[in-house]
Amino acid sequence: MQQRRWLFISIALLLSFLAYFGSMLVIPPPTAQAHAYVIGSDPVDGSTVGKVPGEVHIFFNAPISSISNAHIYSIQHGNLVEVSTGASRVPASNPQELIASIKTPDTQPEGSYEVMWTAVANNDGNTTYGIIGFDVGFSGTGVDGTTVLGPTSSNNLESIHKLDTAAILSIVWEWITTAALTFWIGLLVVEQFILTDKRTLSVLAQARKRSYALEWMCLLALLCGEIIALILRMVRLAQTLPALNIPLLITIISDTMYGLIWILRILLIVIAMVFLYVSHRRRTTPVVEPEPEPEPITNFERLSTQDAVAVSPSKTQEAVEKRTVEPAMPPRRQTAIWLTLAGLITLTFVLTSSIVQVLNPFVSAIVFDWLHWLSQGIWLGGFAYLAYVLLPLLSGAELEYNTETLTFLLRRLTPLLIAGMAIQLVSGLFLSEASIHDPQQLITDPFGRTLLVQILLTLFAALLSIYALYIIRPKLTHQALLLPVVKADLPARRTRQSEISGTQRLLKLSAKTVAFCGAIILLCFALKSFFAPPIDFPNVKYNNPGLTQGNTTINAQTRQMGDLTVTLQVLPGRIGYEHTVIVMITDNKGRPVTNAQVNLTTNMQLMDMGEGHASLQQGNPVYIATFDKRAAFSMAGLWNIKVEIQRAGQKKLTDTFRITLTA
């Protein structure tokens, strides 16, 4: 049996390594992208086009649901006027594209346009949003259809990644759900594969008295966690809507792949709860088993039992002679049902995780993610079961043969834990390469920093696991073998008992430390799900032609004012038009400043053409002012724009921008 178990584990490890290196040679690892982010648009974000387009196309890195929408606004007299018509649509031919139409494009004015989009990822049900801007007819930036699309322009990552109440609750429940699934898998594997020998039946009976409640706790945590996760996704979508629309929120269940998989996951969890209740009721019905033929015992077992009887005859006799019998249902069938349920529930989590958020999901990526979840449960969940169920059960001093039982269980458990750890490391390496395409992102991106912490903790937990299984366990086994050599009435026996107790405490501390590291690793997993992998921008070709550089005037400037970076843009930069002045302010960390009061004063530099004034408060995050063509910018030449920025509790900042108007 032991040889077959090692053979099975060796084959599993070999297949994992071959699959990994084979996928690296044949298929490059997919870029894992959680949620749905903009990676391109037509017109290009920040570009200038010759005429108002009939449609605006937005391209995402992942399939989006039909719930997604986009609204197009024209900036007129400093106000946003919606010019989109009807609902946005996701074409059946490309589920990663969102199309919004502009009503009567031939009658729309030249100038600046904004596209405010909201997307619900089809696979994980998370909501993202942002703004795309383009100019028609003239450009104050001089950009000639050049792509400036990036994470901080079209995708509002500052708000999406903000750790507000809903985000913190989402991370916490993601962590609880993942921890419950991990521990449940470890519990099932240990009880179905390790505690099946005749020598461990009494231990199994006592362990199941504790694990029954733990199984219920894990399944209830999974059920409640999934319900709360769905509610939090609805809350995130509701935050982007102008008014509460409950029917639209409920469509997350029916109009997304996440909703359908969520229903299947809830159903599987309920089936597992029913099966747990039925199997426990059958197990509590005692069945008398005929007394088998006595098996020869070793000198170690004989001496251990004799010494234990001398210490506590009644309890030892009860423990030795009491036999527990499995329920009427064959154990192999129970094992098959439990493992099938655990595998299917885990697969539903895989299908809604970040690994399937790619252009063409690879089967190898899904398989590796599934193996990652399962091995995580076997390794970390197995150590948690060892630390909090088995070791407290077998650490009692009143039955000394518990040490022999413990060493026997550890010998059976070691290959399983090592296999889970190895598969976890291999699959984690594959998924890390799929998530990070630039090593610098391990420092600069919040997802990368979380991944780096997870990698370091995983390596530490792996080294500690090896120490516990290959240094502490052999030491405990050696001490247990030497214990029966010394009779109970000699002081040397008490010394060896003390050494065994110390080794057991060291083993328990190591197991609890691995379990604690596992909890932090799972918290990193929840944080990674929230932040999502960094956006990978492919080269996208656009159809709309841009204007030539000769048709544009550069009327945009960026300056440093104190600890602020201020960008001022004037549109259209030609006399005879109303002019729009756009001011964008960021702090020294690149974050938009939205709580400032901005005062603008305009006048011509060479002659007094009269001052124009505008006062702006609380941009979102853009401060916009419109000047009538008779009040300012009425003559070609050099104009001064004095900018004053006042923040609460801060010193007023002042600077003057100079722009040139053409005829």
Automatic annotation (TrEMBL):
Gene3D superfamilies: 2.60.40.1220
Superkingdom classification of source: Bacteria
Pfam family membership, one: YtkA
UniProt domain CopC: residue ranges: 35-136
Metal-binding as UniProt keyword: yes
Subcellular compartments: Cell envelope
Transmembrane segments: 172-195, 216-236, 256-278, 336-358, 378-397, 409-431, 451-472, 513-531
Keywords for the protein's UniProt record, in alphabetical order: Copper, Membrane, Metal-binding, Signal, Transmembrane, Transmembrane helix
Cited InterPro entries: CopC/D (IPR032694), CopC_dom (IPR007348), Cu-Rt/internalin_Ig-like (IPR014755), Ig_E-set (IPR014756), YtkA-like_dom (IPR032693)
Residue ranges of domain YtkA-like in the record: 561-644
PANTHER family per record: INNER MEMBRANE PROTEIN YEBZ (PTHR34820)
Entry protein name: CopC domain-containing protein
